[in-house]
Amino acid sequence: MRNWGVIGGVAAALAAGMYVLWGPITERKRRRKGLVPGLLNLGNTCFMNSLLQGLSSCPSFIKWLEEFTAQYKTDPNQPTEQQYLSLTLLHLLKALSCQEVTEDDVLDASCLLEVLRTYRWQISSFEEQDAHELFHVLTSSLEDERDRQPRVTHLFDVHSLEQPEITQKQISCRTRGSLPPVSNHWKSQHPFHGRLTSNMVCKHCEHQSPVRYDTFDSLSLSIPAAVWGRPMTLDHCLHHFISSESVKDVVCDNCTKIQAEGILNGQSIENQRTTFVKQLKLGKLPQCLCIHLQRLSWSNQGTPLKRHEHVQFNEFLIMDIYKYRIPVHKSSQKELNQKNSEETMPGTKDGIAVKPSDAEQPSGTKPLFMNGACSSSFLMSSGTFPLAVFPECSSPVYLYRLMAVVVHHGDMHSGHFVTYRRSPPSPKNPHSVSSQWLWISDDTVRKASLQEVLSSSAYLLFYERVPSRVQHQSLELRAEE
After folding, report:
1. Cα 122 from Cα 129, distance rounded (Å)
2. Catalytic annotation present for 132
3. Distance (Å, rounded) from C-alpha 424 to C-alpha 36?
4. Measured in Å, how far apart are the chain's first and last C-alpha atoms?
5. What share of the chain is helix, strand, coil (3-state, %, to 5)?
6. Which residues are paired to 464 by β-bridges?
7. Helix extents (H) in 187-279
8. At what angle do helices 131-148 and 85-96 cross, to 10 degrees?
9. What's the pLDDT tens digit per position in 110-147?
10. How far apart are CA 450 and CA 205, in angstroms?
């Protein structure tokens, strides 16, 4: 019995020593597995929890928030009691990405709802909401916060006027004094900000109207009708989004001008109305790309229905063929094609996307790559893109890596949001991309495989752009920024 007592005392001493050195076993186990904190469900806040987990897996967004909120930390005139959405969001995302030390396995995100109320958004934690709508609430509120800040120093800010910041390109006025600098924190757009182009071409005279630009924070893609025996892919949704449409009875100024030139004596003529071909393209692709798959449909009786079909997507996404390119003048088109025949990006023609047909492919071959249609075995788990496998996409400029997937389970009346996201990188290599995936449902966190992620019925897809080989050679990218 004495021996058992001695053994028990030694075991107790060892347990106490382990507790002192490493803390509770549950906490040590969570950190060893590389898991992240979960989020407390405040009633029906799975929509918010899933979105926050998805945003926390986007390093570029967190980095932008750090730069955006630097003004509050350095400006002594900012009131400390005022709540800012950017600061609240930054603290939550850094905690969820393990960039801030926290002893809690489950975090409370009620502070986000409280600060949104100061931005006049009344979001109840007991009513079911949509994660995509909350995403737009956050991005629009961040833009409002940026626009409320002064873009130049106030004239009564004597301290800033007497001690302006010295810049390399200093602007001087007639009094030899430097103008106060414009803060870069308020000029930059968030990394989800992109631009759409709208292109209109007359079918009769082929005259192209001026290109119109519209901003977007996410691409909301409708799911086209399924074809029997053919799987639905993300490429099908993207091609459907940019597919051209005919717009009838549109006044064409060029046709009217041509008609007027053929009439003598300066007689007035009516405006010529023709049919135009309209097409959307992506004028500026963002650093972080949020894709929303529209799963809402309507029955013949007018009742809302949810579309449950699986849309195939990949770990990597190539967006080059959806990018708008400035049309080249016809006189120099032939010379440009001869010089850059090997560098010409397939799938575009005069700024308009062209879907590759079977006739354009070499005989006996099929396209090796399609977003959402290639085998997951071609995707390396280390996070690198096997460009050698796809010779026609050997140097993509707009290459994106999947960071998170938000899934909705249920129907249009009730359901639950969960998130697949990448595990944060190790502290030893913070700029690396982890190949470990996590499945998160509110406060429940477990590991998941890439195959499980790609098999899910995605509602929101979060991609982040990967630096490409030819990015530094592209003058187009520098011009659009």
Report:
1. 12
2. no
3. 8
4. 79
5. 30, 20, 45
6. 288, 401
7. 234-242, 253-261
8. 130
9. 999 999 998 888 887 777 889 999 999 999 999 988 88
10. 51
User: 3-state class of 293 per DSSP?
Assistant: strand
Q: Of 51-55, 232-236, 324-328, 435-439, which gets the smallest average pLDDT?
A: 324-328
Active-site residue (options: 46, 202, 252, 393): 46
**Cα separation of 429 and 279, whole Å?**
43
Catalytic residue selected from 204, 207, 409, 416: 416
Question: Residue 312: which H helix or E strand, with range?
Answer: strand 311-312
pTM metric for this prediction: 0.73
Q: Which residues contact 385 (CB under 8 A, 6 or more apart)?
A: 316, 379, 399, 401, 466
How far apart are alpha carbons 266 and 1 in whole angstroms? Answer: 121
- What are the pLDDT digits (tens) for 436-471? 999 999 999 999 999 999 999 999 999 999 986 545
Whether pLDDT at 169 is above 80: no
For 33, how many CA atoms within 13 A lie in the half-sphere containing its CB? 16
SS3 408: strand
Q: Which residues contact 50 (CB under 8 A, 6 or more apart)?
A: 131, 406, 417, 418, 419, 440
Q: Which of 175-179, 240-244, 403-407 has the highest mean pLDDT?
A: 403-407
Residue linked to tokens 């799975």: 46
Residue type, 465: R
Q: Is 292 in the active site?
A: no
Please state the φ and ψ torsions of residue 88, each to the nearest 5 degrees.
Answer: -65, -45
The reported pLDDT for the residue numbered 350 is 40
Is the pLDDT at 152 greater than 70? The verdict is no
Q: How far apart are CA 51 and CA 143, in angstroms?
A: 18
Contact 275, 203 (CB under 8 A): yes
Give me 253's structure tokens: 């100024």
Contact 38, 98 (CB under 8 A): no
